[in-house]
UniProtKB/TrEMBL annotation:
GO terms for molecular function: DNA-binding transcription factor activity; transcription cis-regulatory region binding. InterPro entries: HTH_LacI, LacI/GalR-like_sensor, Lambda_DNA-bd_dom_sf, Peripla_BP_I. It comes from [Actinomadura] parvosata subsp. kistnae. This is LacI family transcriptional regulator. Keywords: DNA-binding, Transcription, Transcription regulation.
Amino acid sequence: MADVAKLAGVSHQTVSRVLNDHPKVRKETRARVLRAITALGYRRNLTARALVTRRSHRLGVVSFDTILYGPASTVHGIERAAREAGYFVSIMSLRTIDRAGVNEAIGHLAEQGVDGVVVVAPQRAAAQALADLPPGLPAVAVEGRHEGEVAVVSVDQREGARHATAHLLALGHDTVWHVSGPDDWLEAEGRQEGWRAALAAAGREIPEVLAGDWTPRSGYRAGRVLAARVAEVTAVFVANDQMALGLLRAFSEAGVRVPEQVSVVGFDDIPEAAYFTPALTTVRQDFGEVGRLSIGLLLKQIESSGTSGYDHLIVPPRFVIRDSTGRARSALPY
């Protein structure tokens, strides 16, 4: 640090202020110090900094080993937001989610001295584990329930599903069938609730739910069942885009035309959704915003020593209309 101060022509204290982003540093001085830091390749001693500030500037994230687009994108959004805020991230990725495993992961991160944790909690077991957080550890749950003493950031799954279902009803479909996610996922529960609410509000029949597990294979199986009932099925809301991909494959094999015979809506807006055949109408989740808000809430707790309250921030979804939805057969002119 002394070398940086000498090259920049400032005091040791001024360099320290720049490194800690102190507001009372002139723009020109800050720029000169930053140039000196770059020229010298200076790196801060984080261990020494932690001893002074009593903060590690490291955050913990608990997620689980998955290739699913939603959870993976959520973790990426959290990591990016933390890095932009000047924090390192330690990620504990669990192969399966259960209360004991989540508690063990949180305990391990706390032993590492993280300043706080974000728990990606889309399943009931993870949400329940939040009741066992170590005292005084700042924490935020992503996609968890707003119950107890923990802040939560979530996408409005219910509203996204309601909008998707209402869109199909507005196209003249008498009712909308649903391929759901796994029962133990809070997101699947919220999407099913939104679907049911939209049908009930319109006074429409609520068909039986076809259970899926988020994979294209389960969507394919559901598609084969629905293709055999194409005389009565004209619209399907699928709880994620991967299952919608499998469903579209089953429809294609059975000769069911989308959207001419059956309209299909997915959820997530994965990067490939625009390139499905046909391009998939779906519900987009803003995972970048989820990451930004969750890190913002966590830092608010850290800076206030846990006295900032337990907020619940809801990120609105966005409905994306493409080619997989159209007017119902009964609504088309002859």
